[in-house]
Amino acid sequence: MKDTKLGTRVIANDGRPPWYSHDGQNCDTYIVGIAGASASGKTSVAQRIIKNLNVPWVVLLSMDSFYKDLTPEQVKIADNNDWDFDSPDSYDYDILIETITKLKQGKMVDVPIYDFETHTRRKDKHHTVYGANVIIFEGIFGLYDKKVLDLLNLKIFVDTDADICLARRLKRDVAERGFDVQGVLQLYQRFVKPAYDNYVYPTRANADVIIPRGLENLVAIDLLTKHIQRQLQDRKMKSRWDLARIEPPLAPSPNVIVLKETKQILGMHTMMRDANTSRHDFIFYADRMATLVIERALDEIPYEPQVVETPTAKTFNGLKVAAQIVGVSILRAGGTLEVGLRRVLGDIAIGKILIQTDPSSGEPQLHYCKLPQSIHAPDCYVFLCDAVVGTGAAALMAIRVLLDYEVPEDRIVFLCFLAGPQGLHVVSQAFPKVKIVTSFIDPVLNADTLYLEPGMGQFADRYYDS
After folding, report:
1. Where is the Phosphoribulokinase/uridine kinase domain (predicted)?
2. Is residue 454 over pLDDT 60?
3. pLDDT the model gives residue 235
4. What's the CA gap between 158 and 173, in Å, rounded?
């Protein structure tokens, strides 16, 4: 049976790095704006740049997605080729600027899809974009609005001969947008050409670079690509291995909560570390430890007074949890805490985040995300689960994902079996309001010996026997 608490939105992409500011104020997202006449080759230039960059986290954003919805009366005018789609007033700049701003901050956005047959943005479908290192924004008025210009790092104007633009527009609008030839010519003469002369062409003055002939000018495009690559290299943040080598303080942050080292805790860790422990026993002790970690994490959740009547007709002044709690597992190791979550919290809704390491750079990348709908509730707390925190890279990315879903930082409690000092320090420095609950801090965990201490091996591999 489907859990009605679970959301249906799924984010899946080619991966993105987590190394950007958690407060959204100092992000390294690089935004390129491309403007020019209708059918001048803006999209082709943008696609060529993306191909040359050859990185997996580039977003192409078209200004055509942000046309205003037309009323039924305006649709009739548009069907008679009497509506001016080439006026600056045809665009919803409020939604456009909000979208670019969120992308620049690395946040998730729903980009509208404009239906050129109905002249409205589709209500049943949108394009979900989850952040990027590079955003290529293209449109005829890409360099027109002052607020948009302030968000751009590089401004490009594609300057193509007017006759070529007209021929391309005829081909595109007839084949792709269902217009007839006479209608396209009528619109061009009445609206497109005057708008270019009065509004679009003057924006050349706002461009950093002007590309004559559009896609035919491969030399200029390739030079621009190299410039963007240099900018990205200059803005590149520390890799996970650099973070792992940060010298941690002698004492962990006050927000790091470690289970008291009792004989029971030490005994269970001994069993889990013993290479001779069977998989059955390893799972048994891991589930027990997970339960203890989760029970300790519940002390960090708000409670409120509650008076109840006992079976003997007495009153008892107690407490009840004053918050919703959802779980989120960092796949696949975080799944090892799910049995404990369900033992302690019963019907808790659990989301999934898949983060994998890029073998070429050692950096974590987000590949999949599905979170419970209740994560947006004002009283919701999130128990974010992973087995081990070594360098802290995966934890950084997972917390960043939750923040992008507008989960308050102080409502996130990170749970793990084992943590290294470097990883704890990195996460605490980046997200000081996040509570971290672990059963043990192991000084052996570092960039060179991560997960390789005697007996533990890869935690998830031992748990899942793979």
Report:
1. 31-219
2. no
3. 59
4. 20
What DSSP string describes 155-190?
EEEEE--HHHHHHHHHHHHHHHS---HHHHHHHIII
Using a 10 angstrom Cβ sphere, with 0-12 exposed, 13-18 middle and 19 or more buried, the burial of residue 6 is middle
Is the pTM above the cut of 0.70? no
DSSP string, 230-252: HHHHHH----HHHHHTS---SS-
Domains of the chain: 21-235 (3.40.50.300), 241-464 (3.40.50.2020)
Decide: 446 and 248 in contact? Cβ < 8 Å.
no
**Average pLDDT, stretch 164-191?**
79
Predicted local confidence at residue 438, as pLDDT: 93
User: Which of 417, 416, 399 minimizes the C-alpha distance to 408?
Assistant: 399
For the ranges 45-59, 148-162, 279-293, 447-461, which has the lowest average pLDDT? 447-461
Answer yes or no: are the C-beta atoms of 57 and 13 closer than 8 Å.
yes
- The type of residue at 212 is P
SS3 (DSSP) at 396: helix
Alpha carbon of 156 to those of 136, 160, 171: distances in Å? 10, 13, 25
Residue 414 has pLDDT above 90, yes or no: yes
Q: How many helices (H) and strands (E) does the chain have?
A: 15, 19
pLDDT at 398: 87
CA distance 137 to 216: 20
Distances (CA, A) of 141 to 14, 42, 144, 274, 450: 29, 11, 5, 65, 51
